[in-house]
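User: If you would, consider this record:
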Amino acid sequence: MSIRTLPSLPRALTIAVAAALAPAGLHAQEVRLPRIDVVGEAAEDVEKQPGAVAIVTKEALEQQQPMSTEGALKRVPGVVIKPEEETAIVANIGMRGLSAADYKSLILEDGVPVAPGLFVGNGRYYNPRIQRMESIEVLKGAASLRYGPNTIGGVINYKTKQPQDGVSIAGRVGSFGYKESVLEAGGTAPSGEASGGIVYTKAQSDGFQNKGFTMDDLMVKGGMAIGEDQWLGVKFTQYENDANISYRGLFLDDFEAGKTYNPAPDDYFLTGRESFDINHEWEINDNMRLSTVLYWSEMFRDYWRFNVDAAASVAAGRWVFTDTLRGNNRSFERRGIDSRLNISHDSFGIANETELGVRIDEESMHNVTVSATRQNPRSGTISSEKDESASSMAFFAQNRFVISDALAVTPGVRIESYTQETDDLRNDANDGTTSNTEVMPGVGATYWLSPTAQLYGGVYKAFAPALNADAINGGADQELEAERSMNYEIGVRGTRNRLRYELTAFRMDFDNQIIPSNSGGFVRENGGETVHQGLEVALGYDIGAGFSIDANATYVPEAKFVGDRVENNVVTIEDGNRVTYTPELVANVTLGYRSGNLKTALSATYVGAQFTDPQNTTDIVENTSGFFTGELDAYTVVDLNAHYTVNEQLSLFGGVKNLTDEHYIASLRQGIYAGPSRSFEVGAKYRF
């Protein structure tokens, strides 16, 4: 079994289309490229949502210059990140007291799911690159019912850059040998009815703790008008990343001594992905619009990990590796269609906004385990091989009743039906099938208390399915229930003079939450009832004289198990134990300053203490499966960023991350993941 390469046919097709859409002649008129937004571009789009909304704007991304999408999200209210390495090759995003080690929030790119598998496999294996993003939408509450599954925490939608006429090049260098270059190019037809462009990023780094990587990311995007009322858009992406990272971290003594070596120097996490989307938008008339996206993606994740001598490792206080290794290699494919009809009408004597939709999705995973040796570390004997697949169909409908200028009520329902199958290619006895249908009703409302204050709230049912490997094991349905939650939310938002604010109270009641097994490792089991409730607050204030302050905090006093969990007459999880990776308090504050062409920001992020296992172990220890558990101390990271526009063509930027050089534990797996130490970076962008 060797490293795979992705097929070239979709790439060749898309590049040919983009070339046709981007002729040499340039035109200043902006072309409308259709896509599915979760919130929308205008202020009134936010005001229509009966739930909390956060937008990471283009300007904010420009000023922050984050290394990853996780870096951009960590200042969003309700979001907590479980860092593993500074460029976030693997996604670890929690929301509202949901574990950052799980996948209970839906992540989209231009309205299309980006997880390798929503049903068949781990959604953490692919994290889109921030360099091709224009902005980020985060939507919570009843408004997220239109999407799914995995909308318990909410929806994150990364919006990619629209093509712009001309060519720009950007680059930055930084600590740990970081080097990045970005090329953007675009063109518009003389008629103004078609445009196309590319964003290409190449980055490499020796990495903090020598966890180096080499990454290439390409996006080709274009679109055209079809007559006066239809638009067509295409997008192709290709991504490859060879990363010298592992699940293995430092032992406690080495972490406390500040050691910075790579704890698994010969382990590699190799990923590649291609995707192809076709968007169509049809303005049927002034009151009716149909938006449809056809999507396809294919991805591989080859993870080569050396085996360890457990006894020797404990004695040495660091991992001692043998000459054998395993390749846990998975390839994914997804295809689907998502179509949404929006209708404005005056039924019942009031204004109405109806949205009807259907999503059909098929996904598959080929899961192979390869036994190899140090002499031939990329090939060997296949020891296990499975095909996992899932097909799903979802229908949704909602209607926004505009009862008065102040009040709007939005009831809705989503029905999700899916079937999962496992085909063990080595042992037919392990084959299995399971299926499920979920009906998720909800209702939300918005009410203007005054011109400067809008009240919003709602209640809805949300769910996340058990993945194939968890739901079907050994040919039997493991009876892992879908994770179902009743979600409640009420909040207020608005602006008053120089002040912007949003305050939200939320609660999530789980019938059942799937958790790591008490036996350790990667086995999952039903964890029983949990409850999560707390407050989010976001404030922004223009101080004057160029200064501004933005702050937010998420306080989750309860993210706990309800009732004792008993196995073989032994209590394994006590009533009231806290859910893993759910700090009680996460807070951010940013002091900004603008003067002429200069923009600077000094930001601090506080992450409270958190447990890493359901038993709420306090001391950091290694269990019999080689996994580390224990309570993580709170930490604060301070960043300083600056951006200076020299002229219309040239801009300069730079920053210092972890300004105070905080030494902290970011997360645990098979060892300790230390948070990145202080780092520096500088860069420039020039537009021709």
Q: What stands out?
A: The chain is about 5% helix and 55% strand. The chain has one domain: 9-687. Residues 5-29, 474-479 have pLDDT under 50 and may be disordered.
